[in-house]
């Protein structure tokens, strides 16, 4: 099928370009913002070990499957599921899987852009010396005042959405590919600089390494295991249409298996490097690693404001956070843009303007949930909490589960063998066992956990 078909949107110029793009989609706020604090909350090394096993057994097989679906169809996720379910002689309702992925990415970007706007604002705050000599009370006041201002939050949300759409409107080669060729190397350089900075703290650096890599299973709970499993799945951008649409731009001669392993490995390396960079700074400042979501915006600014070189490295850190967010945001909106182009006969410019505007408007709900609508709740959740719960806890696990089931049980085996084109039969059989049994069962357990059954 992919021998003759090509996406109307173009394709990546090389395997390296796809790796950068897919890694950029995977590497985001989850790696640098979320991974360090959930590691801190769950005891460190033992949690990291479980997380790595989950990436290997769940993340990589599902990433291979999602990439394979996209490349075989060469269309947006919705049309992909229509085409491939017809090819497999399966129920036509599989197209709802494509819809769920596109909508999930769309909803995630609406609040992701708001959080990325925080990081953008903190670049300016770090540059102007707002953290200098500040204590916990000062930093908390700074953050609370920022959250209480819908005008400030809307400005930074708008700026970030504009940057995202300016990249996406330029298309696959001159937009997405050029952006990730700049963003990803820059991100790695900034991350290495942050690690080098952390190494200057001597004993605290050793303490951070020990905390991150020395397993202490007495500190790991059943909830921690499930958290590691869920994060391994979500951090790779699976189930939201991003990897599927990027896979549709992948040249036929590129090995899906090798590429997926490299992307997952790089994404994991970024998360670990973020931990190596952050924990020594936290320990050196006498702060608590289990500080929750506020670790980045309310804890690290205290450290940067009271350390030698903290002004410069505070700026670099939040620039790195913005780059990571931007590389992910362009992949979140691309499936919706591709669908509008393919199904509604729009130009890329029209599709970007309409999808970007709707996303921006939805983001206002997240902004107002932190201030003027903070008392308005649906099912006892603010708009932001509801959007986050629906996507991360419901839509993505269901999407990942369905991708595994479709690739393992619905698609014809000869088609999956043809697309994956693995070098030996054993490697294919290992993938097939994982995608048919281990991956869907594991994701199902995570889903039962997040809905409160386990």
TrEMBL record:
Signal peptide stretch: none
A matching Pfam family: SNF
UniProt KW keywords: Membrane, Symport, Transmembrane, Transmembrane helix, Transport
Subcellular location: Membrane
Record has Ion transport as a keyword: no
Membrane topology according to the record: Multi-pass membrane protein
Residue intervals passing through the bilayer: 12-33, 45-65, 96-119, 153-172, 179-200, 220-247, 259-285, 311-341, 353-374, 394-411, 431-451
Family (UniProt): Belongs to the sodium:neurotransmitter symporter (SNF) (TC 2.A.22) family.
Name this protein carries in UniProt: Transporter
